[in-house]
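This follows on from our talk about sequence and fold. I would like you to pick a protein and set down its sequence and fold. Go ahead and set the record down below:
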Amino acid sequence: MTYRPERRVAFGPPLRQRLPSIGYLVFALLVTAVIVYGQNAPTSSIFFHYVVEGDRTRMIPSSVCSIILFTSAIAAVLREQMRGVVLHPDGIELRELLSLGWPRVRRFQWAQIDRVFVPSAETTPGTPVKAIRLDLWDGSHTWLPDVAKSLELGLLLERVALARAIPIEGGTGILDDLGNPLDE
């Protein structure tokens, strides 16, 4: 019997790729807070004059603009969370975003993977493993997207590859230090 991950394990995008959408959400929260404060501010306040009295000359009221801005910021943050790698007991799933936010999901069964390339990494925690590649049964290869916990992803892929007799190029080196868990 070969090793299978016990459950679905998801690896999301790294923080540096999520920062623009998080910044957009912070900006939307600030604008929404200013508009809500302006609507509830005293009538002598500059915020009241800009938000409430300025709405008379605008095509779209400021409250509608803040709702649209806040909703689009939430959608941007959720869209960023759709990317990453998911390991299933039966295979691996790659989630990517194409232009205009269209998601693309590619699924590969363990039997379709001929070779796993995991670049060597230091065994110090926090050192990212870059550019994990899967060579497929049809001669093609695919690169896994960047993930936040790339060292853990590389380690888990190594364990699956060792248990399923999938050749490994490179490697994290951590399993060599710990010994093969299947030898016990």
